[in-house]
Design brief:
This protein is an alpha/beta fold. It contains 10 helices and 12 strands. The two termini are about 40 Å apart. The structure holds adenosine-5'-triphosphate. Adenosine-5'-triphosphate binds next to helix 1. It is found in: Cell membrane.
Amino acid sequence: METIDVRGLRMRYGATDVLHDVSFTTGSGEVLALLGPNGAGKTTTIEILEGFRIRSAGTVAVLGVDPARGDEVWRAKLGVVLQSWRDHGKWRVRELLAHLGRYYADPWDADELIELVGLSDRADHKIKTLSGGQRRRLDVAIGIVGRPELLFLDEPTTGFDPVARHAFHALVRRLATELHTTILLTTHDLDEASKLADRILILADGRVLASGTPDELTRQIAGRDEVRWRVGGTPYVELTGESTAFARELFTRYGEAVSDLEVRRARLEDAYLALVGGDR
Ligand SMILES: Nc1ncnc2c1ncn2[C@@H]1O[C@H](COP(=O)(O)OP(=O)(O)OP(=O)(O)O)[C@@H](O)[C@H]1O
């Protein structure tokens, strides 16, 4: 059974379709990233899968259940990261996580979880005293307190500093690899998507434009590396799929006259821009 199975998903608000015909699946322990410009339909998709929005058409199964009819037992298997804990400002970090854990059969130990998300030095602090990034880490901790089979992360690292981001990436990989948690995340950070995701789905205007591993997308769509160099002070640039052979040829031909050689590998960003347009 697929963890998520979406076929022909449509969503209409009033007279406007914001999801046209979205289909995809994820297997157990897979990290799938939804990428796409503002308004592409990423949050709408996630909220339908979480059971917070009712779709207009199509079939959706999440852990074998239609989210529109998901019960409490089903919901307890999902990790949902909300930003709705602001009103618990007077609670302390450990206290809130221990409290929420009691709703689940096999929750994380609060201290282990706090350590996992890197909030150990804030365990006894009140939530209202946390910084923005620390609150996001707490949001993630709350999302995984029940050891979910499937975790939804909607732009999880917004507002993280580079160290927190790095730690968070390690956490996501650990959840997927060691605990076999399936993870569906949205992000605007292409570097994050290529590091974290086993598979990427590019969504624009409510349609799936492409999907594949980060490498597949980069190779299929962007394809070529950029080679820059100078000969006798004159700059040159060439796009090639064979950058190593090209560089070798340059040296064979021009020898020591070649300077400032740079090879920029095709990146996911190139593929993304080629697909969704660079002028947005
Ligand atoms: N409740 C609503 N009523 C009407 N239109 C809505 C509603 N919620 C979302 N939309 C529209 O649906 C489209 C998709 O929005 P959605 O939030 O899913 O995009 P997104 O890909 O998550 O964007 P972002 O990257 O900006 O977060 C947008 O055009 C948005 O204006």
